[in-house]
């Protein structure tokens, strides 16, 4: 049984998450547990979907129907990460500024979407993980 299709996106998520934690910890000069989640470099979402598309391309070829499905899913996720979720973050900034004078304790998370650089970094992480899995597990 070939577990590489289940393992690859999980490892891409893990590698991207660890990189994001390290980068944010270095930038903030403290452990960045509060910054785990949406947004930041590299994009976990982009890493996950690109790892699957890359693995399918490497193992089955770009002419395989599964690659087309994976590529379509990757486009949807990347567009969502850069567009819709960024708009949600901008709305959170506006809402937080409106309620700043009230007694509201909990602020909305403002960092939701990704920049192009964060998305490209996530895609590169995903492709790298897929290539590593292909080399290590073969097939």
Provide an overview of this structure:
This is Acid phosphatase. It comes from Sulfurimicrobium lacus. By secondary structure, the protein is mainly alpha-helical. The protein has one domain. Helices cover 71% and strands 0% of the residues. The chain has helices at residues 4-28, 44-60, 65-98, 116-137. Helix 1 (4-28) runs antiparallel to helix 2 and helix 2 (44-60) packs antiparallel against helix 3 (65-98). The longest helix is centred in the middle third of the chain and has 34 residues, at 65-98. The chain is elongated and about 60 Å long. The relative contact order is 0.21.
Radius of gyration: 17 Å
Task: Estimate the helix proportion, in percent.
Answer: over 70%
What's the total number of strands? 0
Mean pLDDT: 86
Multimeric organization:
single chain
User: How many alpha or pi helices?
Assistant: 4
List unreliable stretches of 5+ residues: none
What is the domain tally? Answer: 1
SSE arrangement, N to C: HHHH
- Helix-strand makeup class: mainly alpha
Envelope shape: elongated
Largest sheet: none
Percentage beta strand: under 5%
Q: What distance lies between the first and last C-alpha atoms, to the nearest angstrom? A: 11 Å
